[in-house]
Design goal:
single chain, 295 residues, mainly alpha, 2 strands, 71% helix
Length: 295
């Protein structure tokens, strides 16, 4: 018969074995490391600076699409003889649909991946923004600017979340801080650009010129790996290892290629359809949370 003391020892031993199996080496398998441990070894360097620059650029030209409307509405008022109702709808369309799409579509990056959804949203943002420069009526222009708002409701919160998932926990605030600062700068510079060229090129060319950099951002997005945190949570650990190995190489750091990455038990992300987590495990959507806080 096993007394209470022996029973307690058996329970403690089982817990220690489970913890060792999760975060240590497994018999006949690859040694396991948490993503935070790997990020700590990689540090903050060239990879993060490049990725943050690309993400901040996306946020910059994303924000200018908001400012563009306020600069050209006085011209549209005369060209299309806008009533107060139409002028108001055009002014608020992007803001309103950004908030709506952010709340409704905020879980998509948690399900299908940060980079994949960001690529689609950026493409939609470019075509709708550039297309609005060709609008032949106020209704066409309004509908296209609504699509601009829908796209922005996905791009901006995804950029914020993405910028926090490529670095260790202690440096996570750098990315969002940079993005927010760049967004505020873009408001001023877009107004300056309007002052310099709007009268010379007209509102259609002004809208199109502001949309062109989105193509460059879309190309730059190809340099970014998918978020390693998302990949690990989704069960795509081999892809996550490739992503962090690329970051480590850019930072001049060598990491082992035979480790298995695991997520820290306190990190919560919404699982994708391929996630290895049991369906009963509830996880908060980080993209949706950032969307609601932002808007």
């Amino acid at each position: 018969m096993v007394d209470a003391k022996d029973g307690e020892s058996l329970v403690n031993g089982s817990e220690e074995s489970a913890a060792s199996a999760e975060y240590g080496s497994t018999a006949g398998g690859s040694p396991k490391q948490t993503l935070e441990e790997v990020y700590s070894r990689i540090g903050v360097g060239k990879a993060q600076y490049i990725f943050w620059t690309i993400l901040a650029s996306i946020a910059y030209f994303d924000t200018t699409e908001m400012v563009v409307i306020s600069t050209i509405v006085p011209i549209l008022r005369c060209e299309w003889e806008l009533t107060l109702v139409w002028e108001t709808m055009i002014n608020v369309s992007s803001f309103l649909f950004t908030a709506i799409s952010g709340a409704l579509l905020g879980k998509l990056p948690d399900i299908y991946g940060r980079r994949y959804i960001l690529s689609i949203a950026l493409a939609a943002l470019f075509f709708s923004a550039a297309g609005s420069a060709l609008a032949q009526s106020k209704l066409q222009f309004l509908l296209l600017r609504c699509i601009v708002g829908i796209s922005m409701g996905v791009t901006f919160p995804t950029v914020i979340v993405y910028s926090t998932e490529i670095v260790r926990n202690s440096s996570r605030e750098i990315g969002p801080l940079l993005v927010v600062c760049v967004c505020n700068i873009s408001i001023f510079l877009c107004a300056v650009l309007a002052y310099l060229i709007l009268g010379a090129v007209g509102w259609r060319w002004f809208v199109f010129i502001n949309a062109i950099p989105l193509v460059i951002c879309l190309i730059g997005l190809c340099l970014l790996p998918e978020s390693p945190r998302y990949l690990v949570v989704s069960g795509r650990k081999d892809e996550a290892l490739v992503a962090v190995s690329k970051m480590a190489a850019w930072n001049g750091v060598k990491i082992e290629n035979d480790v298995e990455l695991v997520v820290h038990q306190n990190e919560n992300l919404a699982p994708s359809p391929t996630s290895l987590h049991p369906p009963t495990e509830k996880r908060q959507s980080s993209s949706l949370s950032y969307t609601l806080v932002t808007f």
